[in-house]
Amino acid sequence: MYRYILKRIVMTFLTLFIIILLTFIFMHSVPGGPFTREKELPPKVVEALNKKYHLDDPYPKQFFDYLKGLVQLDLGPSFKYIGKDVNDFIIDGFPVSAKLGLITLVFILLAALPLGILAALKNGKWQDAFVMTLATLGVTIPSFVIATMLIYFFSYRLELLPTFGLDSWKGYILPVIALGGYSISFIARLMRSSLLEVMKQDYIRTARMKGQTEFKIVTYHALRNALIPVITILGPTVAGLLTGSFVIEKIFAIPGMGVHFVESVAQRDYTAIMGMTIFYATFLIVMIFVVDMFYLLIDPRIKYE
Amino acid sequence: MSKEIIVSPADWEPLDIENDLREKIWSTQRTFAEDVWFRFSHKKSAFAGLLIILLLMLFAFVGPYLTPYSFDTQTLDFSNIPPLMEVTNVDDNLFYITANLKVIHVGNNGKLLAALPKLKEDTAQKIIYYDFNGRELPLSYQKKPAAILNHEGKRLRRDNKVWNTSYWLGTDGLGRDLLTRLMYGTKISLIVALIATFVNMTIGMIYGGISAFAGGSVDTVMMRIVDIISTVPLTLYVILIMVIMTDGFLSIIIALSSVYWVTMARVVRGQIYSLKENEFVYAAKTIGSSQSTILFRHLLPNAMGPILVTATMMIPSAIFMEAFLGFIGIGIAAPMASLGTMCNDSIQALRSNPYQLFFPSLMICIIMFAFNYVGDGLRDALDPKLKK
């Protein structure tokens, strides 16, 4: 098992290195360089800027300097906002995004698991059909459509909830629903099919035969095993929340990292795009790693070879 | 319980030759394709999905030839006109008042005739005078909503509702026909999704096929690469590729098709791996077929079922991704429309003109549903074993 963990750690670092290298190559293959504006700058100015940001160094040196910065958690300066570092964007935005993401994650689990369990236990009845219809809707409707419809009905028509900002708890309701919609549907479906599968197993029949109550059968015997696929999907779910936040933060004007990222993309602020991409990617890969390790803990049957 | 079985001597007589026909299979034997079609068309949701896709194709590819407008025809006088207009009736002439206080003369059949020229504005009284065939038409904006005044100075209510027959789905903020833009948007989104899926399918088939067929260390290395790519958050990389290329049709296809082949490669590899030990492969080797013949003529056609299912499921995710990119502002370049950019354009005006967002959103949902149902149906039809 330790060998497996070690192997995973090595793989994680390799993946990170490849991501950094790829991002670096992408950002340095931009035609015209980072200082190409609509109004052309004089060549002298460009030269001075290149010198200031060490862009006249050979690429390998630039890359290793950048790596050195990364190890010291320094993502370099922004090219568009003079005097701002990319770190500032992350320090500003990430706590906001992370809080929203965490609340959404809790909401997803609180909503999806009971729905999935209900659908599985009432298999073939109207409750099942209801949950499955809801889940199909959630998977097929893009989050920005859900978000805008929610705003239109709950904020403009009924005037119940604020349209933007996170000033009070009310502000969280719509973004959380819109952000979580897809994952709730997906996890509810997964929970349903995996619980249905488990309930067919022999050990459930044995438990029934012993005269165990149905409630205990579901909670003690079935759920433990049925939850395993759900836990596997949590890593990608966190990824989905992050990228989903680009759209949701834009719609609800939430000052999170997603907004900074989309803005940097629109402004072609290359160092900011590069820094935030690497930050996102690192965060996600670490999350997937953590989920994998957690998975190892809860399922004793798995002994990774 | 016990019952005597009566056997008559006639039962021991030989049967008529005619009875051979009882053994004959009377129904025509179906080929595999007919079998798949039978299962597919008997699944209502899948068949409905297919029908909707055909209708959408008609809408997107034939529709643009039937409208009098183009995707970039602007009529600034007629901007932000909804499909269902609340109009004021002044002596049997209908007038629509826009949000920015213009008055448009509307025919009884719902055709938009002309925006009235402005005569003068009384800023103290908050009244704008418009010229209607030599008559003065006062528009008061003292109280919301703005209203036309009759000759006694009374506010006339907007109590008639007329469907807009010039622009059936209304116009956007630049006075472009929403229906026409929806057709072009659907067309672009469908083309992008179909081409991206096709490219991903081809790359995935070749990559996965070679990996499984070569086996050994080649397979290990190639799959390790796939593992690494699949842990990378792909959305970020699609965005990065879009940033370094210029906005446009080609870049979005390149961006979408350069990263999503990973799933396909895995599916193909799994299939080929299980197929390559079959007798027909040994037979092909024995008669001296070349490696590429075995891979492309024997193995891949046999794996076509799961490949097609995966490809069909890829189309909605490509549409989803295109809409997402358009929505965050890095999609098809203006003035061309895609469903995502149309949603993005209309979000600022959501409060006053919700219909501008409603139609493209609805279109995205319909496309997603249709392709998902077709994918489901195809999976069940091609491989009944896969059905859960």
Structure description:
The complex is a heterodimer of chains A (305) and B (388). Chain A has 305 residues and is an all-alpha fold. In chain A, 76% of the residues lie in helices and 0% in strands. Chain A has a single domain (1-305), classed as MetI-like fold (Orthogonal Bundle), CATH 1.10.3720.10. In chain A, helix 4 (86-121) packs across helix 10 (257-267) and helix 9 runs parallel beside helix 10 (257-267). Chain A is flat. The mean pLDDT of chain A is 80. Chain B has 388 residues and is of the alpha+beta class. Chain B has 2 domains: 84-163, no CATH class; 178-386, MetI-like (MetI-like fold). In chain B, the strands form 2 sheets. A 5-stranded antiparallel beta sheet of chain B has the order 4-3-2-1-9, with no helix packed on it. The relative contact order of chain B is 0.12. The chains are: A mainly alpha (305), B alpha+beta (388). At the A-B interface, helix 1, helix 5, helix 6, helix 9 and helix 10 of A face helix 5, helix 6, helix 11 and helix 13 of B.
Provide the residue-averaged pLDDT of chain A. 80
Span from first to last CA of chain A? 7 Å
Structural class based on helices, strands and sheet pairing of chain B: alpha+beta
> What is the CATH topology descriptor of chain A?
MetI-like fold
Overall outline of chain B: elongated
Q: What is the succession of H and E elements of chain B?
A: HHHEEEEEEEEEHHHHHHHHHH
Beta-strand residue fraction of chain B: 5-15%
* Outline type of chain A: flat
For the record, the CATH class of the largest domain in chain B is Mainly Alpha
The CATH architecture of chain A can be given as Orthogonal Bundle
Mean pLDDT of chain B: 80
